[in-house]
Amino acid sequence: xxxxxxxxHLGAVYASKNPExxxxxxxxxxxxxxxxxxxxxxxxxSICLALLTRHLPSGASPLLDAGAGTGLIGEWxxxxxxxxxxxxxxxxxxxxxxxxxxVYQALHQMALGNELPFEDNKFAGIVSAGVFTTGHVGGExxxxxxxxxxxxxxxxxxxxxxxxxxxxxxKISQLETQGLVSVAEQTEPYVSMPGEAGTEPSCGxxxxxx
Length: 210
Ligand SMILES: C[S@@+](CC[C@H](N)C(=O)[O-])C[C@H]1O[C@@H](n2cnc3c(N)ncnc32)[C@H](O)[C@@H]1O
Prior knowledge:
alpha/beta; binds S-adenosylmethionine; globular; Rossmann fold
């Protein structure tokens, strides 16, 4: 069966047509996700961490890992001195794996793109690795992240280049025009999974919230 391979899982998640489909695909993938991504040479968490440490001092708190998955970033955030981190993800299966790592103060099963039940200005920083991509979340997910991030805080995200060009960059321009964010940094395009043939490039982006 195609989904028993990690290529099958990837194909399925990219082809997801609605939030129910995507959460169910990730539920099915959760147990082998970490080892599959390790084999694929998955880079988004490292890129996000590098960007975060350049723009947010160690110890800044609290942080939100938006689309935390199994908690790959949460483990490393703790090592780097960001010790108060909450996780949000649409997939209960992925969050169950994240919970086992014991690095998040709270875990929230909910969907980006919808209203989020956090107060304005709650988080000093938000990180979202591998979430703004095909079949997952587009520019519509940014409004709420901006609302719940403190003024002076940062939102670090990765975005698949094709989606960035057509959907996310126009949304960021709109947020800039509204005076809500500025782009502090954007990386050159890079391939997020060098071990995976045909992976489309992505960019890392740092938004400074005004
Ligand atoms: C490629 S994984 C990345 C997980 C983790 N950030 C990492 O880098 O390992 C994408 C994650 O986004 C989650 N996701 C997809 N659509 C979502 C949505 N609308 N709201 C919240 N999470 C979503 C999936 O469940 C999955 O855990």
